[in-house]
From TrEMBL:
Gene3D superfamilies: N2,N2-dimethylguanosine tRNA methyltransferase, C-terminal domain, Vaccinia Virus protein VP39. GO terms for cellular component: nucleus. This is tRNA methyltransferase. Residues 340-351 have a biased composition (Polar residues). The keyword Electron transport does not apply. SUPFAM superfamilies: S-adenosyl-L-methionine-dependent methyltransferases. Belongs to the class I-like SAM-binding methyltransferase superfamily. Trm1 family. Pfam families: TRM. The keyword ATP-binding does not apply. Residues 245-297, 334-358 are annotated as: Disordered. One of its GO terms (molecular function) is tRNA binding. Keywords: Methyltransferase, RNA-binding, S-adenosyl-L-methionine, Transferase, tRNA processing, tRNA-binding.
Length: 686
């Protein structure tokens, strides 16, 4: 029995350990979690906090203390239970007893490969697990739009689609492309290889592979069951096939209500492990054995999610694979050289051997390398979807290299501070080649800078790039644009719509300005006796339409054919009926349901609307007027002959070709009319 005192030290360095409580919110996952608590609390704390607090590959050290004086035996039992739980979620571990100070302790490494996949969730009817990755329900509308766009594109081209999902995360988007958009093939890539298990599970389930899930599952169960099954079918071993079948039914039994009642369960898992062989003491697959034994297996989530050793794995996490010099695509399987070959790719089980085309592939490559290798191999996609994080724009141009003519690119930026806030002009200039300043229409400017970057990057590559739709979501915030990419046959790439906006901070007027007008972008609000006032200039950016009217119409028609597209996504937008705003303390952002969002986009496709909006608050403030009903204001402007729409970017804004002075006047008319109505009502009552 190891002495606790000698083992305790390495795990309890104050810098690395985290004191914790189940109620503590938003602690960043740590490489080491130290539990020191009274015995009965041990299990509960472990269950409620370890998944949240422990980094994959980290360590959990549990010290149970007999504060309730229940005796060492009792404490030992609790510790054993906690260890069993831990083994369900991890591998390895050892138990130590120290009768002097702490009756029982469990120390267990939690290998990344065994990070729990968590409970099965649903988005718009597609099931998925998150694993060590993350999931944002707030992004549901952006995935809804992508699914609709893929369906429309499919109808228009009449062909099956191939999708390259460059930054997959847990893979819910890829799963929805397969499940709901009915695309032929999804290549899901995420540089972070911890996402391997959920990606494989989600794509596998979405494409109808036999190991779909029906309830709470974890990587361990999936891997064990699938490995045993695959090996059994490969080698025709009857006993193992039987074991696999039992295990499969056990999984099903376990997962329907999430309660493990079958006493044979753990035994079966152990049996599967034994029959596999090659499992080291710590539960990791021996690398040599894996090459020999598992290299033969096709398609099931085996082996590849287990890193060869901890060091290699960390390298993957930090820097990603470093080399794909002679990367090329083999038949059904990616064969990539160098570090990439280690464990980075996995294709769907249909493979080429059974004659069926594979429907998905999972890999863990750095985005630009993946996109570059696709281009090099002449492997082009109908949809390249990049759900990136931050303002890293290095791969925006690369995305265009992997899309086929007539295909679509779905790009993202989440750096509102730089893109829309105008607070980091130097960063925005470096990332997007555009100068942003704090202007009232900042979020629309952000979308336009993103689209403009893509249009210009396309021109650089002889590609004509045009937005099919653009979408802004306040959480994040997230700027997304779906763009069609065609060959540019020496035509105009759209430089007239790649221009500037000038804004007058005195009168609130905004206007589009062409390159030739640079140096002469002024406002006349000072009057004829004064020199014209210089406007603040932002850009260049895309000043053409943010959506393609015909395409959005087709998306609307398509949305009418699917029940999932009606209203809010389940488990999302938990708000009382009729209430737009986020209830206090609720982390779910208010958002428009899908029909609303599509309708707003349709409104914005009206010809004649300017590439910016006016904030209602600015109209009232500048006009020294009280707020009026937004729809009445729109109606008043229409009556005066202007084109008007609401804005999908901001609920507190309108888009119109009227000047700010016209808007102020219309607001005044509305206010007078409302006041008159009020007075008449009062008079009628008296
Ligand atoms: Zn002015």
């Amino acid at each position: 029995m190891a002495s606790l005192a000698t083992r305790k030290q390495p795990f309890l360095s104050p810098a690395a350990s985290v004191g914790l409580h189940p109620q503590v919110p938003d602690i960043k996952p740590s490489a080491l979690v130290h539990f020191s608590c009274c015995a009965p609390a041990l299990q509960r704390m472990f269950a409620t906090t370890s998944r949240r607090l422990l980094k994959p590959g980290g360590w959990a050290a549990l010290y149970a203390q007999d504060r309730l004086a229940q005796g060492a035996h009792c404490v030992g039992e609790y510790a054993t239970d906690a260890m069993t739980q831990m083994r369900g979620q991890s591998q390895g571990g050892e138990m130590m007893h120290n009768a002097d100070t702490t009756p029982a302790a469990v120390v267990a490494p939690v290998p990344s490969s065994a990070a729990p996949l968590g409970v099965v969730q649903t988005e718009r009817g597609t099931q998925f697990v998150v694993g060590p990755s993350f999931y944002k329900p707030e992004s549901t509308p952006s995935r809804d739009l992508a699914v609709l766009a893929a369906r429309v594109h499919q109808q228009q081209t009449g062909a099956g689609l191939r999708v390259l999902d460059v930054m997959s995360g847990c893979g819910v988007r890829g799963a929805r492309y397969l499940d709901q958009a009915g695309v032929d093939y999804v290549w899901a890539n995420d540089a972070w290889d911890e996402t391997h298990a959920p990606l494989v599970a989600n794509l596998s389930a979405a494409s109808g592979d036999p190991w779909g899930f029906q309830g709470p599952v974890d990587a361990w169960q999936i891997r064990q069951a699938a490995t045993t099954y695959a090996r059994a079918s490969e080698e025709g071993g009857r006993a193992e096939a039987e074991l696999a079948e039992r295990q499969r039914s056990h999984l099903r039994a376990t997962t329907t209500d999430g309660v493990r009642e079958d006493p044979e369960g753990p035994e079966m898992v152990a049996g599967a492990a034994r029959s596999m062989g090659g499992l080291g003491k710590d539960g990791a697959l021996d690398s040599k054995d894996r090459e020999g034994r598992f290299g033969k297996l096709r398609g099931y989530p085996v082996g590849s999610e287990v890193a060869d050793d901890g060091t290699l794995h960390r390298e993957h996490v930090l820097g990603g694979p470093t080399s794909i010099e002679d990367g090329h695509i083999g038949k059904g399987h990616a064969r990539l050289s160098g570090d990439v070959s280690k464990s980075c790719t996995k294709t769907s089980p249909e493979g080429t051997e059974s004659g069926r085309k594979p429907r998905w592939r999972v890999s863990h490559l750095e985005a630009s390398k993946l996109l570059g290798s696709c281009n090099q191999n002449g492997d082009f996609y109908d949809i390249v979807d990049i759900d990136s994080f931050g303002s890293d724009s290095a791969f925006l141009g690369d995305a265009l290299r992997a899309v086929r003519y007539g295909g679509m690119v779905y790009v993202t930026s989440t750096d509102g501070f730089a893109l829309a806030g105008g607070h980091r002009p130097a960063a925005t200039l470096a990332a997007y080649g555009s100068y942003a300043r704090p202007v009232p229409f900042g979020n629309e400017m952000g979308l336009r800078i993103l689209v403009g970057t893509m249009v210009r990057e396309g021109a650089l590559r002889d590609l004509l790039v045009r937005p099919l739709f653009s979408h802004f979501a306040p959480h994040g915030p997230v700027f997304r644009a779906m763009l069609r990419v065609d060959k540019l046959n020496k035509g105009d790439w759209g430089h007239d719509d790649f221009a500037f906006l000038g804004h007058c901070f005195v009168c609130g007027q905004t206007r589009k300005a062409a390159w030739k007008q640079l140096g002469n972008i002024t406002c006349a609000c000072a009057g004829p006796e004064h020199p014209p006032r210089p406007m603040a200039v932002v850009g260049p950016m895309w000043t053409g339409p943010l959506h393609c009217a015909a395409f959005v119409d087709a998306m609307v028609a398509e949305s009418g054919r699917h029940s999932w597209a009606e209203g809010l996504a389940e488990g999302y937008g938990r708000r009382p009926a009729g209430e737009r705003h986020r209830p206090k303390g609720n982390s779910v952002y208010p958002f428009r349901d899908l029909p609303d969002l599509l309708q707003l986009m349709q409104e914005e496709t009206q010809p004649g609307l300017p590439p910016f909006f006016y904030k209602l608050d600015d109209i009232y403030k500048l006009g020294k007027a009280s707020p009026v009903n937004k729809l009445e204001l729109c109606a008043e402007l229409r009556k005066a002959g202007f084109v008007v729409s609401r804005s999908q970017v901001s609920a507190g804004a309108i888009k119109t070709n009227a000047s700010i002075a016209d808007c102020i006047e219309a607001a005044r008319v509305c206010h007078v009319a409302a006041q008159r109505k009020k007075d008449q009502k009062l008079a009628a009552r008296q």
